[in-house]
Amino acid sequence: DGLVVSEKVKSNNIDVKIPESELEAEEKGAEEEHPRESDSNILDVSSDYPRDRHISIQRHLADLEKLADLREDERKPCPLCPEEKFKACYSHKLHRHLQNLHWKVSVEFEGYRMCICHLPCRPVKPNLVGDQTLSKMGAHYHCIVCSATIVRRTDMIGHINRHVNKGETESRFSTVRAPKSSYKVVKESATDVQVLPNHSTPQKTDSYFNPKMKLNRQLIFCALAVLAGERKPIECLDAFGATGIMGLQWAKHLRSSVKVTINDCNENSVTMIKENCHLNKMKVKLNIREEDNDETVGNGEENSDTIEVTKMDANVVMHLRSFDFIHLDPFGSSVNYLDSAFRNVRNLGIVSLTSTDISSLYAKAQHVALRHYGCNIVRTEYYKELAARAVIAAVTRAAARCNKGIEVLLAVALEHFVLVVVRVLRGPTPADDSAKKVRYLLHCQWCEERVFQREGNMVEENPYQQLPCDCYGSMPGKTAVLLGPLWSGALFNTGFLRRMLMEAVQYGLDEAQPLLKTLVCEAECTIPKHLSTHSPGDENKQEECGVYIRTPNTSAESYLVHGKRKSEEVLRGAVKRQRAEHSAEHPPFYYNIHRHSIKGMNMPKLNKFLNYLSEAGYRVSRTHFDPMGVRTNAPLAQFKTVLMKYSTPTYVGAQAEGPVHLPAEIQVEEEVPTAAAIKVEEAELAEDEESGVATAVFTQSYPTHCAAD
């Protein structure tokens, strides 16, 4: 092999008049690429880097001139141009030509310059006859790493940057593994991981690591910690490991409570995951076909620090094995992996998925959302919750195909991702109940009022009657659109969120605690001042899916054994409790206070406005989906009425211009009843209609309108 390398090095010094020899040398080097990678002693043949470079790759401009000096004539040709393009000339003219045409437009990389080449090095596609011809004097660059030929300079710069991001900074005739010095060690939650340069750029590096997803990782860790408190040990899977940061955090903090499996289909990522395991003093358990000195067999403390690393497609690993906890975080949409995730997940297990295709979910690419999620959406004021419900609807359909139902534990939609955490309920009955909660949504495009379509298959004569607003009668044309199918059930489980908050406090996850407090208030639809992280008495015993789960300060007799399959009596009891607590679910969707503000009026502070709605008898809370959003069960008309009542004019002269607001405020106080009063009047009307005195009651309740009639 050493003789072959020396011949290759000599081949670079052949006279530039014969470019065919260069092509033969390139083909010869490509054939010898694999044996060179397999031989570890090749690296000692030559210390010059790169060893087998094209003549257009030089360190200095003088090196290009030396190539032209090989000819002893007074007129010297350009070594990078054919004679048809640039004829032989004197030295001073050749120097100016090399400097202006080749050197100034070169691409620099690690001390080398990849100059533009005009030699016929780029083979074109075969013509109709089948002859292999060479292109006519096409300008191009030769890559210093992979010997590829690229036409444009900007494309060449991007090509080199991709090599750098992947750690391929050596010649293709040596190993493509990046040196240890090019790695960067990142620490998060007491876990160290090695990453490559530009690790935060997806699809351009094998070790994708996004620091902005730290909050997402903390929420998933809290959900896993809650599940680990229910039954031990649990088998959990990080289907898309990348650097392995998430699985390492699970194993490092939860120890013997979990058996972690980190999977990735990329060989370089799997190698980096193993190195990161050793960096965090974790043992690696390989596949059965692989042999490693670090493989451990046994129980106890030996398995507590062991992580299983697999290299296969995520769908394959979820088809082959069963898990209690599965997390899916692919690049983009995760709908391609839902069927495999629900196929073998255990009963009462948890499936969490992170979707980063926010351009389609947030209605910027509506045709993509229809293609991936089978959902029709438009841009609304509540577009983030719309995205979460679209993802849950896809999850529900995938689970129902496997005869499994779901209970949504958590749904978060932030700037960069949509996170959904669901508990799996095995059986056709939970599957049917979950499938019934996937419904269509009627959305008014004028006032943005919205309501879920009624259950049933019968076609209604006028679907606009379901909307509380009267825009259809007062506005010309069609005013509403049909969105969906969407998840119409609850997005949060209060008991699960409270225990997640306890785990976040226990492990010191500071970034997740404020969000979890907001989610607890949003799930209960209460103002934040009513939140209590330490529930006294009976609230320590939480109930989810008919299974009692012990939380701190609870006696051992107050809960059932974790991980047991539910009996039929418990299932029937759970269904009754869910029906009884259905009215206590948080109201769907929210209103943006800025969207419905009155022009020329100063609206009240958001916290004060929440108190005003609460005093009017409505359930109200803030939402994490929108910092200026208000989740309430008040109709939009009542929402606007209360907002107008407590708004003040921007300036004194505003009352003299346009509509007068002061009489409207007085009228609001007289005509708008509270939520409790509305319910009492509706009940009285229903009773009186049965007795035949509805007209008298109507006259007594609304004397002004009757007098007007």
What's the gist of this structure?
With 709 residues, the protein is α+β, with helices and mostly antiparallel strands.
The CATH superfamily name of the domain at 184-286 and 305-455 and 466-494 is Vaccinia Virus protein VP39
Indicate the radius of gyration in whole angstroms: 34 Å
Strand content: 15-25%
CATH topology of the domain at 184-286 and 305-455 and 466-494: Rossmann fold
Q: How many strands, which pairing sense, and closed or not: the largest β-sheet?
A: 8 strands, mixed
Mean pLDDT, all residues: 76
Description:
With 709 residues, this protein is of the alpha+beta class. Among the domains are: 57-123 and 137-165, no CATH class; 184-286 and 305-455 and 466-494, 3-Layer(aba) Sandwich (Rossmann fold); 590-649, N2,N2-dimethylguanosine tRNA methyltransferase, C-terminal domain (Phenylalanyl-tRNA Synthetase, Chain B, domain 1), CATH 3.30.56.70. It contains 26 helices and 25 strands. The strands form eight sheets. The chain has an eight-stranded mixed sheet with strand order 10-11-9-8-12-13-15-14, sandwiched between helices. It has a three-stranded antiparallel sheet with strand order 1-3-2. A three-stranded antiparallel sheet has the order 17-16-18.
